[in-house]
Amino acid sequence: MKLFLSSSRPDRPFAQRLGERFRALGAEVKSDDSWDGPGASWEQALRGALATADGFVLIVPEPGTPRANNAFFEAGAARAAGKPVVAVMPSPDAARARELPSDMYGLAVFNGAQADPDKLARAIVSTLEAA
Fold this sequence. Notes:
- By secondary structure, the chain is α/β, with parallel strands linked by helices.
- The chain has a single domain, classed as 3-Layer(aba) Sandwich (Rossmann fold), CATH 3.40.50.450.
- It has 5 helices and 5 strands, in the order E-H-E-H-E-H-E-H-E-H.
- Strand 1 (2-6), helix 1 and strand 2 form a beta-alpha-beta unit.
- Helix 1 packs across helix 5.
- It is globular, with a radius of gyration of 13 Å.
- The mean pLDDT is 84.
């Protein structure tokens, strides 16, 4: 399974740990954190990554996070491309849930703060495979 993992900068450590768990399950993981270099075309890289992804994992950004809209844009692009999307809340802050755009309601949302990391990764992969 090929996964696209989207996160904002403050959530990168959480996303990296989750990505490691996905890789341990045999998934190939791409993320937008490799597109930050000079001359990187975010739009072109996003299109390419989404074209090959089997599923999309959105780490819901904390309210007020700079460029948090990029993560939601990426999730919307994944949905528009027909990719299954799941959201992960890395902290118990209910304000993150309120950040989800209304067109994102109805997707599976996982509580990453209270779940065993291995079980969380397996549940996400299982949900995406079933979609």
